[in-house]
Specification:
The complex is a heterodimer.
Chain A: H1 8-27, H2 29-38, H3 43-53, H4 56-67, H5 72-97, H6 101-109, H7 113-117, H8 125-155, H9 165-177, H10 184-200, H11 208-223
Chain B: H1 2-22, H2 25-28, H3 31-54, E1 55-56, E2 59-60, H4 64-77, H5 82-98
Antiparallel strand pairs in B: 1-2
Helix pairs in contact in B: 4-5
The chains are: A mainly alpha, B mainly alpha.
Chain lengths: 237, 99
């Protein structure tokens, strides 16, 4: 790992790739905006989630639980549990980005799947920083604009079921889960977690079945041996 | 109540990100902690898929949403982008409800 300045051609290649990922990812904020308004959140609440929470799976989870009739506190807990993976990404990136003070505080807000994926493979500090910042900032700007567009459009629609937006939520969660299903252990955990959640649906208040499924992750982590590196989803551009 | 949940969860999610960049790796970098953190998204996302698609109050029902999910699976197998998967699922459910 070197601290030498980045050569211009490498820099522009990283910027180009990162912007590609940023645009592709940011655009799907449209679906978050539409789904969130369909779940009963206001446009302001929807935009606040994208600005302040800014981590897609947690945002979808919070509105998904509320849409299913769950208490907001269940939605918040599910969002927080999903947010724990960003802590692991941060652990991986800290030595590579080497930011301190206010730079680190700002960088934390754009620490997400995609910015991690575009930084973690770099071999120098400047290259990692360019990949992280370009990806994180472009996703942030587009995700928020797209959220607003989706939310405003969503308020014009009337009954969201007519447009199948309730089915869109399941599709969104599956698309977020999909890259992790290549691993056999993960497929077993996914099936068991889905079964536990469905078994809990008749017995518990809405929102609780999803939280109960986190128990499957705990159990599987205790039962499986061998270390494996933190999974960082591939960024798709 | 919804606003409170949004603000508390957003603050918590930010602190989780900041903690990763700030905490010395040896504090959290343990195999068990890593396995839990890797498996939690898998378990929660799978549970969210299941509950969103067949949950209805305290009942399990198979309706247009299941067809939407089937279309999403096909689109994912075809390596379609995220937006195509999400809106493909919505379109399939909307069309079957029109019939």
């Amino acid at each position: 790992m070197t601290a030498a300045p980045l050569d211009p051609s490498e820099r522009s290649a990283i910027v180009r790739d990162s912007l590609g990922v940023g645009f592709a990812t940011g655009a799907y904020g449209v679906s978050f905006g539409a789904v969130s308004v369909a779940a009963g959140l206001s446009v302001a609440q929807t935009c606040a989630l994208s600005l302040l929470m800014f981590t897609g799976a947690s945002q979808f989870a919070l509105v998904g639980v509320i849409a299913a009739g769950g208490a907001p506190v269940s939605g918040a807990l599910t969002a927080l549990l999903l947010g724990t993976r960003n802590t692991l990404y941060g652990l991986r990136l800290a030595a590579l980005l080497r930011w301190t003070g206010w730079r680190r505080a700002l960088a934390a807000q754009i620490l997400i799947d995609e910015s991690t994926a575009m930084a973690v493979t770099r071999t120098s500090v400047p290259a990692a920083r360019v990949g992280f910042l370009t990806t994180g900032a472009s996703v942030f700007v587009l995700w928020n604009l797209a959220t607003l567009a989706g939310a405003v459009a969503g308020t014009q629609l009337g009954d969201p079921r007519t447009y199948g937006l309730d089915a869109a939520v399941g599709g969104a969660f599956l698309a977020l889960l999909w890259p992790r299903l290549r691993n056999g252990r993960n497929r077993v955990v996914a099936v068991a977690a889905a079964a536990v959640a469905l078994g809990m649906v008749p017995l518990s208040p809405a929102g609780v079945p999803v939280l109960a499924a986190a128990g499957v992750a705990l159990l599987a982590a205790v039962l499986t041996r061998g270390t494996d590196p933190t999974e960082i989803p591939e960024a798709r551009s | 109540m919804t606003w409170l949940a949004i603000l508390v969860a957003a603050a918590g999610c930010y602190l989780l990100k900041l903690a990763g960049l700030s905490v010395p790796p040896r504090v959290l970098e343990r195999p068990l902690v890593e396995r839990v953190a890797d498996l939690i998204p898998v378990a929660l996302l799978a549970a969210l898929v299941a509950v969103q698609v067949v949950g209805s109050g305290h009942h399990l029902v198979l309706d247009a949403r299941a067809l939407g999910l089937a279309v999403a699976v096909v689109l994912l197998l075809l390596r379609a982008p995220f937006l195509a998967v999400v809106f493909g699922a919505a379109l399939a459910a909307a069309l079957v409800r029109l019939l």
